[in-house]
């Protein structure tokens, strides 16, 4: 039997998180963020609305909690860096038409899955969820509350993405009243010149006022999204952004790399390439941001995310309970995710199902009384085995050989004997530690987490070019 455990292994480097330019150059490639496995590139139209209906019916009798994701696709303005599924419009009545179709979809869904499972997670994403006005947001929450068992427990995670240009402190009070307890602010960068270059001008004073209001209204968690690699950004501007961000002490920070792919995302054509920072400037910015956030007390949990050490995500990761779904990291165990709205993805049982990505098609199917499914996949046993390893590594930075054997009745080492040389090379590079009882990601390896997960991804080679950079 081939074994992955090297008795003569080179002593791995376990230094605190540090950016080694040589390692970054070696491991900088394109790869998934693993919010699902298999990823959406494996979804096909062979998975139909009938398949989805069967999975919903099967999920009806399960007592475990449920997670809801509602996609609200409209935006008032176009951010030039955007790669999201969104519709930029100021046309009156679009939200009304969309709400009417959400009502049809919710009715169809609850006919199958029922209304009893406690909804412990709810996320409004977009687009811009706060494109909806106060009455429309209230109507939508009422619609959900009248069809699902929304959880009253304070442990619930009810979150909404906030475009600071579309909310006031008073709107935050309304959102708190509607039951949201987590806010995710799209900050990106606070430098006015960078903001002009990406067509997203939002004043820092307004963000300060909103964060103050969010704390006053007792939102449990405040997250900021930041992006590095944007036009007109450099270490000096980013340093100022980090000053602004650290002063506000958000509980969580997602620091994303800007992927310039104008051939795929037309909006990005407005960003002039000569304004973009070079690869070495981007590495310097990543190093700067990582150093400053860690010095400010944040823990890097992996996959672009920094959190306060007392945050539940850091605590869950320590205990090995962290999980990941399409909305990112999460601490609450809700095994099934019901996606609602155009392009939304559901994870029900062993299936992933995605709604139509085209709004006309989404409306057409609902008007015909059909679940608006476009594509999906049913996970094979092989997928489930690989998904387990990838999610353990991505969330808890470790996969236990014993837990793997207990779950799948096979040895981790035998099952993945073919990737032994790759893992050994990663051990030599100080990214992982391979021991008899499992594989552990080192502090250095947290930056290359996606690369380690990719070792266990059997679909990767055909699709590498479709993903963003791993580092
Ligand atoms: S970044 Fe967000 S707000 Fe900007 S266009 Fe994209 S989805 Fe809309």
Automatic annotation (TrEMBL):
The record's cofactor note says: Binds 1 [4Fe-4S] cluster. The cluster is coordinated with 3 cysteines and an exchangeable S-adenosyl-L-methionine.
Radical SAM core domain segment(s) = 58-304
Instruction: Tell me, in one coarse class, where this protein mainly resides.
Output: cytoplasm
Reaction(s) catalysed by this chain's protein: coproporphyrinogen III + 2 S-adenosyl-L-methionine = protoporphyrinogen IX + 2 5'-deoxyadenosine + 2 L-methionine + 2 CO2
Which EC numbers does the record give? 1.3.98.3
User: 4Fe-4S: present as a keyword of the record?
Assistant: yes
Localisation per UniProt entry: Cytoplasm
Q: Which cofactor does it need?
A: [4Fe-4S] cluster
Pathway annotation from the record: Porphyrin-containing compound metabolism; protoporphyrin-IX biosynthesis; protoporphyrinogen-IX from coproporphyrinogen-III (AdoMet route): step 1/1
- Xref: Gene3D superfamilies: 1.10.10.920, tm_1862 like domain
Family annotation (InterPro entries): Coprogen_oxidase_HemN, Coproporphyrinogen-III_oxidase, Elp3/MiaA/NifB-like_rSAM, HemN_C, rSAM, rSAM_horseshoe, rSAM_sf
As recorded in UniProt, coiled-coil segments are: none
Alphabetically list the UniProt keywords.
Answer: 4Fe-4S, Cytoplasm, Iron, Iron-sulfur, Metal-binding, Oxidoreductase, Porphyrin biosynthesis, S-adenosyl-L-methionine
Instruction: Tell me the domain of life.
Output: Bacteria
Pfam families assigned: HemN_C, Radical_SAM
Regarding protein family, the annotation reads: Belongs to the anaerobic coproporphyrinogen-III oxidase family.
Q: Spell out the subunit comment.
A: Monomer.
Q: What does this protein do?
A: Involved in the heme biosynthesis. Catalyzes the anaerobic oxidative decarboxylation of propionate groups of rings A and B of coproporphyrinogen III to yield the vinyl groups in protoporphyrinogen IX.
Q: What is this protein called?
A: Coproporphyrinogen-III oxidase
């Amino acid at each position: 039997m081939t074994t992955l455990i090297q008795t003569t292994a080179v002593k791995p480097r376990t230094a605190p998180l540090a950016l080694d330019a040589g390692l970054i150059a070696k491991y900088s490639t394109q790869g998934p963020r693993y919010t699902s496995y298999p990823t959406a590139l494996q979804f096909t139209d062979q998975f139909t609305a009938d398949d989805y209906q069967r999975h919903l019916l099967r999920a009806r009798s399960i007592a475990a909690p449920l997670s809801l994701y509602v996609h609200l696709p409209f935006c008032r303005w176009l951010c030039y860096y955007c790669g999201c599924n969104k519709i930029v419009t100021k046309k009156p009545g679009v939200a009304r038409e969309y709400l009417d179709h959400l009502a049809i979809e919710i009715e169809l869904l609850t006919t199958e899955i029922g209304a009893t499972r406690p909804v412990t997670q709810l996320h409004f994403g977009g687009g811009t969820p706060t494109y909806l006005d106060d009455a429309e947001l209230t109507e939508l929450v009422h619609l959900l509350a009248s069809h699902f068992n929304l959880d009253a427990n304070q442990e619930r995670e009810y979150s909404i993405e906030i475009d600071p240009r579309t909310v006031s402190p008073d709107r935050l009070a309304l959102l708190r009243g509607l039951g949201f307890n987590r806010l995710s602010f799209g900050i990106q960068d606070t430098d006015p010149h960078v903001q002009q270059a990406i067509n997203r001008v939002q004043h820092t004073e307004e963000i300060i006022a909103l964060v103050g209001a969010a704390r006053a209204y007792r939102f449990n968690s405040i997250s900021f999204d930041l992006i590095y690699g944007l036009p007109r950004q450099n270490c000096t501007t980013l340093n100022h952004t980090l000053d602004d961000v650290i002063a506000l002490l958000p509980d969580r920070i997602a620091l994303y790399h800007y992927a310039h792919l104008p051939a795929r995302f037309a909006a990005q054509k407005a960003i002039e390439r000569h304004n973009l920072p070079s690869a070495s400037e981007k590495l310097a910015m990543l190093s700067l941001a990582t150093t400053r956030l860690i010095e400010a007390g944040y823990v890097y949990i992996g996959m672009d995310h920094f959190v306060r050490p007392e945050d539940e995500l850091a605590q869950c990761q320590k205990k090995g309970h962290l999980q990941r779904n399409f909305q990112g990291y999460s601490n609450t165990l809700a095994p099934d995710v019901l996606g609602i709205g155009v392009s939304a993805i559901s994870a029900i049982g062993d299936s992933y199902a995605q709604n139509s990505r085209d709004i006309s098609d989404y409306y057409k199917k609902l008007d015909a009384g059909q679940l608006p499914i476009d594509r999906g996949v049913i996970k094979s046993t092989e997928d489930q085995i690989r998904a387990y390893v990838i999610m353990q590594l991505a969330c808890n930075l470790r996969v236990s050989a014993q837990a793997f054997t207990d779950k799948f009745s096979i040895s981790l080492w035998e099952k993945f004997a073919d990737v032994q040389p790759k893992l050994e090379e990663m051990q030599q590079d100080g990214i992982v530690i391979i021991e008899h009882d499992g594989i552990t990601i080192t502090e250095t390896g947290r930056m290359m987490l996606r690369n380690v997960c990719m070792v266990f991804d059997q679909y990767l080679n055909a699709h590498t070019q479709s993903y963003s950079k791993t580092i």
